[in-house]
Amino acid sequence: MAKDDKRFSNSVNIKNKKARFEFEFIDTLVAGIVLKGTEIKSIREGKASLQEAYCYFNRGEIFIKAMNITPYAEATHFNHDPVRERKLLIKKRDIEKWQSKMEEKGLTIVPVRLFMTDKGLAKMEIALAKGKKIHDKRESIKERDSKRELDRLRL
């Protein structure tokens, strides 16, 4: 394969835009992801979605579910399942800390961003979050609108 192939990019930055609106972030963490075969090529093409994804604990490990990585177009019959569960690579100490916080306060873990490192590894930023109430969402909308108005006035 040619080195000058422009399909793949190391500057992938896929965000979950709804997460900041729906949740109030308490703590964030960067985790590695266990991927299979052609999944990394699809991510490098920018063909992944975090919109409906969520994280959960299973036997002392964190998994992400419903994250959609589109099957790689150039692959043969060895392609991957687009919405399979994927394991997140996090230190045991951090997992235990977050699991205890979740049990105490009724929090959740939300995927915020999927990005590529300088070494070409796929990483995911996840957040320990608390759901916003309706009035909190209204305040977020007001802040966003006022910020937009200020930016218009400056230009």
Task: Give an overview in words.
With 155 residues, the protein is α+β, with helices and mostly antiparallel strands. It has a single domain, classed as Small protein B (Small Protein B, Chain: A). It is built from 4 helices and 9 strands. The strands form 2 sheets. Strands 1-8-9-2-7-5-4 form a 7-stranded antiparallel beta sheet. The chain is globular and about 50 Å long. The mean pLDDT is 87.
Chart the SSEs and their pairings.
Layout: E1 13-15, H1 17-22, E2 23-33, H2 39-44, E3 48-49, E4 54-58, E5 61-65, E6 68-69, E7 86-89, H3 92-105, E8 108-116, E9 122-131, H4 134-154
Antiparallel strand pairs: 1-8, 2-7, 2-9, 3-6, 4-5, 5-7, 8-9
Briefly, what is this?
The protein has four helices and nine strands, in the order βαβαβββββαββα. It has 155 residues and is an alpha+beta fold.
Main-sheet strand order equals 1-8-9-2-7-5-4
Main sheet specs: 7 strands, antiparallel
Query: SSE string, helix = H, strand = E?
Result: EHEHEEEEEHEEH
Name of the CATH homologous superfamily: Small protein B
Assign a percent range to the helix content. 25-40%
Return the CATH class.
Mainly Beta
Helix/strand-derived class? alpha+beta
Q: Span between N and C termini?
A: 46 Å
What count of structural domains?
A: 1
Strand content range: 25-35%
CATH architecture descriptor name: Beta Barrel
CATH topology: Small Protein B, Chain: A
Based on Cα principal axes, name the global outline. Answer: globular
Figure out the total of helices.
Answer: 4
- What value does the average pLDDT take? 87
Please give the number of β-strands.
Answer: 9
User: Which parts are unreliable, with pLDDT below 50 for 5 consecutive residues or more?
Assistant: none
Question: What gyration radius follows from the Cα positions, in whole Å?
Answer: 18 Å
